[in-house]
Amino acid sequence: MDIKIDLPPDIFDAQFPEDRFRARVRELAILDLVRQKRMHEHEALEMLQISRRDLVALMKEAGFSPTEDVFAEIRGSLDRAIAARRGSTGSKRR
After folding, report:
1. Phi, psi (rounded to 5 degrees) for 23
2. Domain boundaries, the chain
3. What is the dihedral of CA 71, 77, 80, 84, to 10 degrees?
């Protein structure tokens, strides 16, 4: 897909080049597609041609968690719930 944005040409200069802006807009669009669950993280890796570590950093910078962080949070919640359940069951048996 090609998206065209009509911007005044005097916005860009040596300190803010058009190609760097174009790359950043593309990166943000891909990250938003991942956030919206329209694209998988591995697809974003391929499209952006970056490392997993860099993708995780970009996702966190954009304000959302990578899959492994979400799973770790879920696992932690489940572990705490199981431990709490065992604790309350153990006190009833005595």
Report:
1. -65, -40
2. 14-63, 66-94
3. -140
